[in-house]
Design goal:
The protein is an alpha/beta fold. The chain has helices at residues 36-39, 41-59, 79-93, 104-112, 154-169, 177-185, 194-200, 203-207, 210-218, 222-243, 266-278, 292-303, 310-324, and strands at 3-9, 14-20, 25-31, 66-73, 99-103, 119-123, 127-132, 138-141, 254-259, 283-285.
Length: 326
């Protein structure tokens, strides 16, 4: 029996799953971030190789039994980046291994819009809105990196919360529950301790503050509410930036899907939808859960000549959603 490997490498974690061609899950393993923009291309390849190795060891399956390795990875949006990563990974796997790599955003997109045109809004550590036209060309808005343009993301919201703490400390803002909650979560006694902390903090650590902000916004904390409202506005602008570049015929039947951990918050998702309604984008929500691991598996199956009907696709989605992601 032969198997294939699907990998989701994101900004906060990496998942490798071993499947049979019949779409039976054999094993899976999880580890830390493999985003090359955060840890470098060599380290990213080592993380991906390591998590694949762990999953194969669990299943007692040798590398030689795997027919395809399909990687969905953050941070390889340009062809040069993809090639650098693939070169590093194939050195570890061996030249004889068949490996494909695509962006986590594209893999998420095809996992929900199978052969159709829609808009995917990703709201996690980073943020971006994206669509792919019938030629496979990307239409993108936002998500240009934390230092340049990542509005509405978990990192952006976390940073706004930290700035609010400092502004509350020196009297520019009132001290609300957000002030104490953030310091408590970071195990800091004094806001001044944030100065050395943030110099050493990784992007995902700052992004991890965002769920606290959303929770406090639900509890009517005024500063948290403002951060959430501003984030929702920026994300709606991203969607509009993509929607406005779609073909005219596609603007009146646009499907919108949400991806990323923060979009799982009903409160935050509703705030984004409200902003989208305000700017009068004509869309319907797609309730299927997008996930890069699903897309990575779909790419492997296609390359192995396995046709995916609705039954098989639903089986794959259920495995990822109900087993791997739990």
């Amino acid at each position: 029996m032969s198997y294939f490997v699907a990998v989701d490498g994101g900004g906060s974690k990496t998942i490798a799953a071993i499947f049979s061609k019949e779409i039976n899950l054999i094993s899976f393993s999880k580890t830390t971030s493999s985003n090359p923009n955060e840890i470098g291309f060599e380290s990213a390849a080592r993380v991906v190789y390591s998590v694949i190795s762990e999953a194969l060891i669990k299943a007692k399956i040798p590398f030689s039994k795997c027919s395809w390795y399909s990687i969905a990875l953050a941070g390889i949006g340009r062809e040069r980046e993809k090639l650098i990563f693939l070169n590093n990974l194939t050195e570890l796997l061996g030249e004889t291994k068949i490996v494909s790599a695509t962006t986590d955003i594209y893999a998420s997109y095809i996992s929900v819009f199978t052969g159709k045109v829609g808009i995917l809004l990703t709201v996690g550590t980073g943020s971006a809105a994206v669509s792919f036209n019938e030629k496979g060309e990307e239409i993108r808005s936002g998500g240009w990196g934390a230092s340049l343009d990542d509005e509405g993301s978990g990192y952006w919201m976390g940073l706004q919360a930290l700035r609010a703490v400092m502004q509350s400390y020196d009297g520019r803002l009132p001290k609300t529950k957000l002030y104490d909650s953030v310091l408590s979560w970071l195990s800091l006694n004094n806001p001044l301790e944030l100065i050395p902390w943030i110099n050493d903090a990784k992007r995902e650590k700052i992004a991890a503050i965002a769920p606290i902000v959303i929770s406090l916004a639900e509890q009517n904390d005024p500063i948290a509410q403002k951060i959430v409202e501003n984030a929702a506005t920026e994300l709606a602008k991203m969607v509009w930036g993509v929607w406005n570049r779609l073909e005219s015929s596609q603007k009146y039947s646009t499907k919108l899907a949400f991806a990323g951990g923060l979009s799982q918050s009903p409160f935050f998702k509703a705030a984004i939808v409200r902003k989208l309604r305000e700017i009068e984008i004509n869309f319907t929500l797609e309730e299927v859960l997008p996930h890069p691991l699903i897309g990575a598996a779909m790419i492997a199956l296609e390359n192995l000549g396995v046709s995916l009907d609705e039954e098989k696709l639903n089986k794959l989605r259920q495995i990822v959603t109900n087993v791997i992601l739990l």
